[in-house]
Amino acid sequence: MKDNAVFRGRFLAFVLLLPSLIILTIFLYYPTIQGMVLSLYRANLFLGTRRFIGLENFKSLFVGTLSPRYIQVVGQSFIFSALVVILGICLSVALATLASQKVRGARIYRLFLIWPFALSPAVAGTIFLFLFNPEVGTVNEVLKTLFGVKPRWLDTPTLAFTLVVLAAVWKNLGYNIVFYLAALQNIPAELGEAAEIDGAGPIQQFFSITFPMVSPMTFFLVFTNLTFSFFDAFGMIDIITGGGPVGPKPFDNAGLTTIMIYQVSEDGFGGSGNSGLAAALGNIILLIVATITFLQFRYGARRVQYGEN
Length: 309
Description:
Blueprint: H1 10-38, E1 41-44, E2 49-52, H2 56-62, H3 67-99, H4 106-114, H5 121-131, H6 138-147, H7 157-185, H8 189-197, H9 202-213, H10 215-232, H11 234-240, H12 260-269, H13 275-299
């Protein structure tokens, strides 16, 4: 019996792929190529000027008078991304494990855990801005009532950085939990029953059975959270802190909550309108994410456990 699903030629396959290729070319490939080309020019968005300077924009990021600012921003981006990914993954798998238990009202609990994902980063940032407002925020009112303190969340550099990390983790929490709940449902119940017979407690079962069995999903979520932390956190940072406040020396070259994607916006659409420098930094972000992704696939995949073995 012949398999009618097999393509007899490349033409039909190309026709079926054409709509996706057109969309990817217009919204992904072409802008990426244009960004690479733009990074070779000194361009001003507002004046409309453009002059070819080669790799000078990349050199300016790490050598010269502007380099301290960009080096600080790159370092902050790595710290921010690491915290968002690690805290987000750990908290998500723990909450998903609890939410997967057979208890009354479990669907309601899951709904409350998932709903933050439906919010845009700007809306999530607005919620945190109101909650942690130093003067009238709900969090400070509770802290004042219980402990008599009202932290300056938006004015203190370390507290502001902590706040945007918490906002980013909370925003992406629902996305992670959805995937972990699906992964947890595929774990054979016999494994847990056998572990209970052997005398393993809930914590031991989690680290010996649950976490290794959801490692493929963790492997996938590391990349999605990494992409979110590098590219999609702009809206929250812009709403909550606007990239500030400036930290103490040696962290006084840029706002402590300014990460690379926010700096790209500042360079491209801020007062300087330096589109070429913004494009160069954008290419650096792509290179960093691509490198981390390659290393994760190259070395991290070895620790992923598929199946029951």
